Description:
The complex is a heterodimer of chains A (about 120) and B (about 500).
Chain A: E1 8-9, E2 14-19, E3 22-27, H1 29-35, E4 38-42, E5 49-50, E6 55-61, E7 65-69, E8 74-79, H2 82-85, H3 88-92, E9 101-105, H4 117-124
Antiparallel strand pairs in A: 1-2, 2-3, 3-9, 4-6, 5-8, 6-7, 8-9
Chain B: H1 37-41, H2 57-70, H3 91-97, H4 100-103, H5 115-132, E1 136-138, H6 144-161, E2 168-172, H7 178-185, E3 189-193, H8 203-209, E4 214-220, H9 232-241, E5 245-249, E6 269-271, H10 274-277, E7 292-294, E8 306-309, E9 315-318, H11 334-370, E10 375-377, E11 386-389, H12 391-397, H13 401-410, E12 417-418, E13 427-430, H14 438-457, H15 459-463, H16 476-481, E14 487-488, E15 491-492
Parallel strand pairs in B: 2-3, 2-4, 4-5, 5-6
Antiparallel strand pairs in B: 1-7, 6-7, 8-9, 10-11, 11-13, 12-13, 14-15
Helix pairs in contact in B: 3-11, 5-11, 6-7, 11-14
Amino acid sequence: MAIPAELNYTEDHEWVKIESETAMIGITDYAQDQLGGLVFVNLPAVGDTFAVGAVFGEVESVKSVSELLAPLSGKVIEVNAELESAPETINNDPYGAGWIIKMSVSDPSQTGALLDATAYEALTA
Amino acid sequence: MPEPFQNRGPRPTIYESSRPGATCVCAPVADTRDASSDAFFGDYARQAAPALPQVSEVEIMRHYAHLASMNFGVDTGSYPLGSCTMKYNPRLNEWAARLPGFAQLHPSQPDETVQGALQLMYELQQDLCEISGLPGVTLQPAAGAHGEYCALMIFRAAHTAAGNPRKKVIIPDTAHGTNPASVAMAGYEVVTIPSTTDGLVDLEALRAALDHDTAAFMLTNPNTVGIFDPQITEITRAVHEVGAFAYCDGANLNAILGITRPGDQGFDALHINLHKTFSTPHGGGGPGAGPLCVSAELCPYLPGPVAVRTETGAYARKNPDKSIGRVRSYMGNFAIFVRAYAYIKMLGAEGLRGVAEQAVLSANYLRVIVQDTFTVAYNRTCMHEFVLSGANLKAETGVSTLDVAKRLLDYGFHPPTIYFPLIVSEAMMLEPTETEPLAALDALAEALRAIAAEAKSDPELLHSAPHTTPVRRLDEAGAARNPNLRVVQGFCS
């Protein structure tokens, strides 16, 4: 199961890529494997704001529907609209073309609570 | 040489088999005068013949006999679909439901002409009240989830009458998916609480979530990992302390029938799946029924009408005083009530208790003989069902629970419920029910053992299973992503 060393992670199996004030967010390889073939992704609107832990969207697979929880507080600045017609992109490339949203981070200190790759690997072992 | 099972593959639909002019019945030419449908029906008279398939009687018989031979049901093999209680449906039920005095009634007939049917419903109501330990019941809901939704509407009516409709409903993370769906449909907010490491309600988490905006707590007991919650009276007491209602999802009633009653455990409402516990057909086999039993406090809000016995001893249909209204046409799925009534009367009180005891014994026997093959989640003496995890097998061989389930079809078994409950990785939920013979339980365990061995020796065989069924592995993700819903000549095909 791929766990890129340069990313941060949450216990809810999301990955976060911090670039100065913005964060790119997706679900991990482990998460997509557990969910199985994704059939639907419910995305937020650009401009929506979420507090850390709030539900910002949903992913639906043939097995179940899972909520996406905001790993950091902030405002959505871009969504990956491609996923609406091709949710399987998350299965095929969870850390690349399968990214879900980009947020502008309102409280950079929250990044301290995210897991690094080593800690996330321990969580999924 | 003809291929074995040549009749088992997919065939054209009955519409695609239509041959213009073919017919089953030769009706005589109408000899009545002035029989103009235009004059009688006016603008509603049909101008074109209905597009029904035109086939001979033998073609119809072969078409449906063929479909029946492709089907897998509890009459053809073991069906250990957890939480669905796929027990055998006794033929006595079918005989009773087909009695002309029941089968040929119209629900609009006046009460005095349907006294037998009303008496049957009244007595079934009495029996369900006795079994549930709750004094009121509506037979109307057509399914378990319908019963849940009906209960939530009753809770809202009772809370509103008390001055505050309240806002949220608490559900443990082991709940059936219909629970949060019903809550959302009823306009309440869903609050999920985690389970303990034993798979039970986390009483502290429940207490922390309960407040005066809580309308209800919904619980399946025994729960979906097959464990009866020993803290149940403490749980219902905590719920009542904030003025909320305790709701029992009766999906798993089969395990406790005649042994303990949800009403005695402190529940205010319970739905009963007649198509599970009381042996009426499931799904495509017939409509369901999810009667809702309620406490005395909630009786006035029940949907109406309900069957009552008047002072003169006659039976009648009556609306409760503060009824939330009708939730189903007429009295509900009456022919299903006849089947459930026949089952209850056939077994009697001791027989029903025997059902629960045998169902629990069967589940525990199966649990013990499969535990050398798959990890049992929350492995302890269980109730009517238990959950296996295929996580180790997947880690070792790459064979998933989905692959195991598909391969079971090749061994002649319906797969168990898979990937549920969500708290168990690669879950398989098995419920053998009381009607499976010992030899069938042994054969199921043997099949699981053989499949686990195949996973190690030939994983590809399992990834591509099933290999012997009329329809092979379906692309479920593809079907959901790109549904092909063609409409041809007014028919879905």
